[in-house]
Structure formats: C-alpha cells, structure tokens
Amino acid sequence: MRKMSALLLVNIGQLLTLRSAADGPRRGASLSELGIIQDAAVLCLGGKIVSVSATKDALRDPWLKKNRKNIIEIDCGGRVVLPGFVDSHTHPVFMQPRLVDFEKRISGANYEEIAEAGGGIRSSIDGVRKAGKTALTRKVSAVLADMARHGTTTVEAKSGYGLSVESELKSLEVIRAAAREWPGTVVPTFLGAHAVPPEYRGRSQEYVDLVCNEMMPAVARRKLAQFVDVFCDHGAFSAEEAAQIFIAAEEHGLAVRAHLGQLSETRLGPLLRYRPASLDHMDYVNDADLPALAQSDTVATLVPGANYFLGLSRYPNARRFIESGVAVALATDYNPGSSPTLSMPMAMSLACTHMKMSPAEAIAAATINGAWALRLASRKGSVEPSKDADLAVFDVGDYGEIPYWFGANRCLLSIMNGVPSGISPREKNVRKKRRGKNRLQQF
Ligand code: NIG
Ligand code: FE
To answer: Which of 273, 290, 416, 418 is the most exposed place for a label (fewest CB within 10 A)?
Structure first.
C-alpha cells in the first residue's frame, strides 16, 4: 500500500500554479500564463492538493497548527515549484540502445535510409520479442524512476516494438506491471501500427488487418490501453490505413492519437474527423489545415528531442501553431531511435532555442497542455485544490532557469499522487530538519 500522508510545502519562491478559468487547453497568449504565486505553500492530503496559498496564511491555518506534527513539511527555501511534467509521448518498452543507427547517422545516413536498410524501428523488434516480461519491466521501471528524478509525474507509454499479437500484448502488460510499482501515473497506448514487421513486408494491408482484427480486440478486452496510436507517414502507414485503425479503435471504445508529419506532409482533415487527442511531431503541416486544427480539441504535440537527435536543422513551426490558436504540448518522445532522452527540461530547452517558444510557453506546454493531450486535465497539469498532488521542486530561483540550464538536472524532488520521490543528494538541502517525531521518515 502506498502511504499517502499529509504533505506541506512551504517557502516556495515561485509557485507556478498553471491555474486557469477557461475549460480547454492553453492557446495563443494564454499559453504563457503561469499563474505564479510568490512565497507560496501547498498542502496535500490523501494524494490530492487541498490548498494553495501564501506561506504565511498556510501557517496561520488553525487545522494546520493543530496537526502540524503529523505533517511532512518541506521547506523549499525560495525555490521554484510547478506541476509535475506530463510527458504525453514516450516509447519506453525496448531492450537495447540503437548504437549502429546512431553511428550510421553520424556518417550521413538519414532516418528513412537507415529504416530501409533494416535499422530503425524494426531493429528493436528482436530484442522485445525475445525478452522476458521481467527484464522488460525492469527497463520500463528504471526509466519511470529516472523520469521522476527529472520532474515528470505523468507518462504516456506506448507499445510498438513487439509488432506481433503476443509481443504487443506483452509490451502493454509490461507497461501495466511497471505502472503498478510507480507512484506516478502511466497512460498506456497501443501502437501496433508503428511499422510493418519484416514477416509482413510488402503486405501492409494484411498487417493493418491483424492490428485491427486481432491485436486491438485483445488489447480492449484486457483493458491494456487507453489510446491507440499509428505512425502515419512516408515509409510507415498511409492516411487511409490510419483511418481504418481509428475506426477500429472507435469500435473498441479506445481513444486515438497519431504520429503525423514527421517525415512528410499528410492533410489533417480526414484524420481530425476521428477527434484524435493529439497529433504528434507535426514537422510538415499544410498551413491551410491550421484553422481546422485550432478549432478542434486535438493538441499538436511537438517533440523537438527527435529533431535534435536526428541532427535536423528543421524544427516544427511552433510559433505559427501558437499564433494560429492551435493547442501545443511538448513531450520527450523517449525512444531508442530518434529521441533517447527522458528529460522534459531538455525538450523544453530545445523548444526555446530551436522553436522560439518562451520559457513560460514551454512550461505550460509541458504541464497543463500535456494533460489535455492525455485527456487528464481534470486531474493533472496544474496546482489547484482537488487536483492530484503531482509537483516538482526545482533548484532554481526563477522558472526561466528550468529550460536555461540545459543538459543538467536541476530537479530536486518530485511528488507523485502525494508521494515524494526522485530523491537526489541535493534534496537533503530542501528537507526541513525539525526536532520531533516522524517527520520526513518516508525519505
Ligand atoms: O516518434 N516516428 C515513429 N516513432 C518514433 C521513432 C521510433 C524509433 O525510431 O524507434 C518517433 O520518432
Ligand atoms: Fe514517437
């Protein structure tokens, strides 16, 4: 049983609440509204946030005064606290890094050439098919723990390197097993349509039928996923195949999302009909489709870690999306081929330097809009009473430093559903050492 005691964070220099009066993802100018409270305190009980206030008001509260000795108190020493990051796009179920592809790319080959030569997604299949559940679960659990150390408290996790009925189900079972051990929140996504596996080479339609008629019913029956994803692009699946997959998902009561526009342009209209929760990558998008995207509930999830790691000079046009009223989220796209980073601050830093998003926009895109992209905004993505107690404490004095100090982890502590975790040696500095009983014993 997870212990969910009362937790009080005090002396928060900047509390980024990301609170919002509007019901919907942040768009346009509202993407940079962080709802900052200075010298703030947050009280969490039973895994939920119960109050957000100035530290001096919190400490005057009669209930708090009476119960203070039973509350774990964290003195944040003037640092920044924000909602835990919502990483709404990751592929954590794989065994090996892809070092051969890495070197080939350094020597000049591109993503599609590597994939055609047998590298890419297909080269991770063998490892997953051969691996036992325990070994795979250990990999996923290690990544989730590391994500928490970087401030991430909610993670969407895709299958997609099994690509057979058995190995896709195994991948989703592994996600479920790892999620049970982690105090944070995991949203599983079925990505059977990630690539056509070698045994179906040249028979893409037959593989799509397998995904729709065998894999998906089993996934739905066993409640192994909340979303269905498809890699819709040149060299992967066509827009017609993606639509077929979306229709099957709808029949099975599963919501949909897609990888789109990473390598080539696909028109959005036909896919928006299925109300995808998000369309991800979006490097190549026809400007004429932006009004329809902005009118929809679909979030454009940008994953600049992939552009960085593939050595591309071109990045998604975040400014145009934001100015058109499109809801933009940021995610790591953690995977062994195109984006082996689990750091949301790194993704945010790239968003600032390469996509010209402001630090405030990057933070909102990595928290509240990520929550909208997972349809979890009623529980996640902001620090407001009744929301889940998901918080990250950063060892910085100003939120702008989170994307600024790239490549180093400044997260001191994550709190997931009220459970403090991700403790680093620096964390000792934020503990409030008080005499008396059972304070901080959980650490
Ligand atoms: O999001 N584009 C498709 N899927 C991943 C890459 C997966 C891989 O190369 O293993 C992505 O970039
Ligand atoms: Fe991806």
So the answer is: 273
Does the CB atom of residue 231 touch ligand 1 within 6 A?
A: yes
In terms of residue numbers, what domain contains 184? 85-373
Centre of ligand 2 to C-alpha 91, Å, is 6
Ligand 1 near 119 CB (within 6 A): no
Residues 198 and 225 in one domain: yes
Q: How many domains does the chain have?
A: 2
Question: Which residue from 312, 306, 337, 347 is spatially nearest to 119, judged by alpha carbons?
Answer: 337
Query: What is the per-residue pLDDT across 184-211, written as a single tens digit (0 to 9) for each?
Result: 999 999 999 999 999 999 999 999 999 9
Residue 306 CA: which ligand is closest?
1
Query: Ligand 2 centre and the CA of 409: distance in Å?
Result: 23
How buried is 3 (Cβ within 10 angstroms: 0-12 exposed, 13-18 middle, 19+ buried)?
A: exposed
How many Cβ atoms are within 10 Å of 395's Cβ, its own excluded?
20
Asked if residue 32 belongs to a domain, the reply is: yes
51/91 same-domain check: no
The residues that bridge with 419 in the sheet, in sequence order, are 416
Q: Are 176 and 225 in contact (CB under 8 A)?
A: no
The pLDDT tens digits of the residues spanning 317-375 come to 999 999 999 999 999 999 999 999 999 999 999 999 999 999 999 999 999 999 999 99
Instruction: Evaluate: CB of 336 within 6 angstroms of ligand 1.
Output: yes
What CATH number does the domain containing 162 carry? 3.20.20.140
Which ligand 1 atom is nearest residue 161's CA? 10
* pTM, two decimal places: 0.94
Confirm or reject: Cβ of 345 under 6 Å from ligand 1.
no
